[in-house]
Amino acid sequence: MFAKSQMQINTAYSAWYWAGTISSVMRLMIMFYFWHAVYAGKDMIQNLTLQDMLTYIVVAMFIQGYVSGAGNELAQEIRHGNIAIELMRPYDVIFKLIFMDFGGKITHLFRETLPLMVIAFIFIHITIPASPEAAILFVISAGLGIWIGTFFDLMIGIVAFWTVNVWGLRVLKEGVITFFSGALVPITLFPGWLETISSYLPFQAMVFTPVSIYTGIIDGQDVYLAVLIQLGWCLGMFLVMKLIWAQAIKKVTIFGG
């Protein structure tokens, strides 16, 4: 029900859809010409050909569009004081926000991601996974990455209980995720010390891991280990998010919410 209502809201505002689509097409063009310039006179960079890099960057761009969740909506509900009313209703607020966000993601998939993927295959010639097994594991990994991003985004939204405005924190969050998730460039291109630090953070599990499975950067038995690590991050982020939420609810109760 919540997912369906959000899909109806999203489809009602076609101007936002076209603006997002045009923006994504322009981003594809910028990335295409940028990496062609970077690879000028080079066959490979860190064992990645130009086609490998373009495939990585395009797939990473699409996955990054899904890792943010309902945190902004939650922060707005808290800021405007509507959260007290929501908490009195006969459903779990976090459950509602997650499913509304899920509806928005479904709309985004059919109205933007799939058409742009067709464009990317035709004009940029991105490759497909090396095997059906890799394709299936990529889908599983991408799903786990999206859940990790959703739980982390909700954690940032919950912070609104303790601060007036989380806008600055959300901007910082987007920057950190873009960089440390490998959405901007593959983490394998980082200096050794920074790559090591990134491997211990949850952000690489959001984008780098699924895209690396798609492109073959991670292969063999390492793929299953990477997915298990993602699963661990997913469960851990969920538990931390629920713990912070429980503390936040106590704050509302203390203030008579």
Automatic annotation (TrEMBL):
Pfam families named among the record's database cross-references: ABC2_membrane_6 (PF06182)
- Residue ranges the record marks as coiled coil: none
Bilayer-crossing residues are 15-35, 109-128, 134-164, 176-194, 223-245
Keywords in alphabetical order: Membrane, Transmembrane, Transmembrane helix
Q: What is this protein called?
A: ABC transporter permease
Q: What is the lineage of its organism?
A: Bacteria, Bacillati, Bacillota, Bacilli, Bacillales
